[in-house]
């Protein structure tokens, strides 16, 4: 492999452009070709970003000899087909989220990539943002004790456009596949494998899910409480709770630059329920005991302290996942340890189960 990795971008829409702009942060990456169904659209992007080659079909793009690595940024319903074409042409692949429409499709692609010995990864860019790497370090280092729960939300009031990719069931639209995928990815990343899931949704007129609420049960009794919306604003932040404190991941949690860590020491109620070990402290305070009991957790927060950690990102943040794909390619690794194929399959297993249960629970029309 030459020093510079030559990317071929499949799709010429908004994400294709954002990804190409992100790549500009990497001195050892170039975009050598872009392809879309419409040659004009591919040419438009090529002109704007000075990409040397534009083609008007998926087949031409994946067959291009000047492409080392294909980035798939077409709509969800064609991810499987486009990855199969790229891998079939002997090209490693980075594919936009969601990796596929369901876990069955994801397993098929994973098998193909593995049997061909080619690199393949879902472009779950949030996992590669430096602040998220720092969060994983904190969690593994026991900063908040035993990690027990995640609460996260993601939502924006998108304009309702029935033919658009978000709203069209035929293109794999819906909030679960567009935004829910980030929430479930984060939950799996931080709390481990999922053993059970329940969820409710509201449905848009077009037939896609436009709001969802999920509870995931992870191994060891850990829980995630997740919600997503295509119709309204949410906090877009996340809180990870542990036996010894909590970490707040600042908005937007999928591309964060700040973590707030709060330590909370254990509350051990005495025989009289007055706060036990805190008694000495409480006694010194000019408050009655019943009030002290109520503010005990707040005292703990104040004593444990609060730390803000700022971990800035550069550019638009899409380059970090690309850098990992390039590292893997050079190292001869066919999967990234940060986002292996089994993780993409596990995410879709959860999304499949939620969708299956909606029917079971009769929560939707
Ligand atoms: N990581 C992130 O932050 C984001 C990720 N995404 C993901 O990126 C993907 C694309 O989204 P976005 O860029 O917004 O979508 P756009 O509609 O803006 O672009 C889609 C592109 O795919 C092409 N295309 C559509 N259908 C086909 C087909 N059947 N065969 C070949 N090309 C096709 C279109 O070109 P043509 O007109 O020529 O067909 C167009 O260039 C989605 O999977 C989405 O989930 C999206 C936004 C943000
Ligand atoms: O992946 C995504 C990231 O966030 C966007 C909202 O800002 C989504 O619409 C998009 O699909």
Helix-strand layout with pairing:
Elements: E1 5-10, H1 14-23, E2 29-35, H2 39-49, E3 54-55, H3 58-63, E4 69-72, H4 79-88, E5 93-96, H5 103-116, E6 120-123, H6 130-140, E7 147-155, H7 175-191, E8 194-203, E9 209-218, E10 223-229, E11 238-242, E12 245-249, E13 258-263, H8 279-283, H9 289-304, E14 306-310, H10 319-331, H11 341-361
Parallel strand pairs: 1-2, 1-4, 2-3, 4-5, 5-6, 7-10
Antiparallel strand pairs: 7-11, 8-9, 9-10, 11-12, 12-13, 13-14
Helix pairs in contact: 4-5, 5-11, 7-11
Bound molecules: NADPH dihydro-nicotinamide-adenine-dinucleotide phosphate (NDP) and 1,5-anhydro-D-fructose (NHF).
Enzyme class: oxidoreductase
Keywords: Oxidoreductase
Domain GFO/IDH/MocA-like oxidoreductase: 133-247
Description of the structure:
InterPro entries: Gfo/Idh/MocA-like_OxRdtase_N, Gfo/Idh/MocA_domain, GFO_IDH_MocA-like_dom, NAD(P)-bd_dom_sf. One of its GO terms (molecular function) is nucleotide binding. Belongs to the Gfo/Idh/MocA family. It comes from Tautonia plasticadhaerens. Residues 5-121 form the Gfo/Idh/MocA-like oxidoreductase N-terminal domain. This protein is of the alpha/beta class and 365 residues long. It folds into two domains: 5-126, 3-Layer(aba) Sandwich (Rossmann fold); 130-267 and 305-312 and 346-361, Dihydrodipicolinate Reductase, domain 2 (2-Layer Sandwich). The chain contains eleven helices and 14 strands. It has helices at residues 14-23, 39-49, 58-63, 79-88, 103-116, 130-140, 175-191, 279-283, 289-304, 319-331, 341-361, and strands at residues 5-10, 29-35, 54-55, 69-72, 93-96, 120-123, 147-155, 194-203, 209-218, 223-229, 238-242, 245-249, 258-263, 306-310. The strands form two sheets. It has an eight-stranded mixed sheet with strand order 8-9-10-7-11-12-13-14, sandwiched between helices. It has a six-stranded parallel sheet with strand order 3-2-1-4-5-6, sandwiched between helices. Strand 8 (194-203) and strand 9 (209-218) form a beta hairpin. Helix 7 (175-191) crosses helix 11. The protein starts with a strand and ends with a helix. Bound molecules: NADPH dihydro-nicotinamide-adenine-dinucleotide phosphate (NDP) and 1,5-anhydro-D-fructose (NHF). 1,5-anhydro-D-fructose binds at residues 156, 178.
């Amino acid at each position: 492999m030459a020093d510079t990795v030559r990317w071929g971008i499949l799709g010429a829409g908004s994400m294709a452009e954002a990804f190409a702009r992100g790549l500009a942060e990497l001195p050892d990456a170039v975009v050598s070709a872009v392809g879309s169904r419409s040659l004009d659209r591919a040419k438009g992007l090529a002109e704007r970003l000075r990409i040397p080659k534009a083609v008007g079909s998926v087949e031409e793009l994946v067959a291009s000899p000047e492409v080392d690595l294909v980035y798939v940024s077409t709509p969800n319903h064609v991810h499987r087909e486009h990855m199969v074409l790229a891998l079939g042409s002997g090209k490693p692949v980075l594919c936009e989220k969601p990796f596929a429409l369901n876990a069955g499709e994801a397993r098929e692609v994973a098998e193909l990539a593995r049997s061909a010995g080619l690199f393949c990864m879902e472009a779950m860019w949030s996992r590669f943002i430096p602040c998220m790497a720092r969060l994983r370090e904190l969690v593994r280092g026991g900063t908040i004790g035993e990690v027990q729960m995640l609460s996260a939300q993601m939502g924006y009031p998108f304009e309702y456009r029935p033919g658009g990719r978000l709203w069209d069931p035929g293109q794999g639209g819906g909030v679960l596949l567009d935004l829910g995928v980030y929430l479930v990815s984060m939950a799996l990343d931080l709390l481990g494998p999922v053993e059970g899931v329940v969820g409710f949704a509201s449905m848009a007129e077009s037939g896609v899910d436009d709001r969802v609420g999920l509870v995931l049960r992870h191994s060891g009794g850990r829980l995630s409480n997740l919600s997503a919306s295509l119709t309204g604003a949410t906090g877009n932040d996340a809180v990870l709770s542990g036996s010894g404190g909590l970490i707040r991941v600042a908005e937007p949690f999928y591309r964060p630059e700040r973590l707030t860590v709060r330590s909370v020491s254990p509350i051990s109620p005495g025989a009289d329920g007055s706060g036990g070990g805190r008694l000495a402290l409480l006694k010194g305070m000019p408050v009655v005991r019943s009030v002290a009991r109520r503010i005990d957790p707040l005292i703990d927060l104040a004593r444990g302290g609060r730390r803000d950690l700022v971990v800035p990102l550069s550019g638009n943040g899409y380059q970090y996942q690309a850098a990992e794909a390039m590292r893997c390619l050079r190292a001869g690794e066919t999967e990234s340890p940060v986002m292996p194929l089994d993780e993409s399959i596990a995410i879709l297993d959860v999304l499949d189960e939620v969708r299956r249960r909606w029917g079971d629970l009769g929560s939707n029309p």
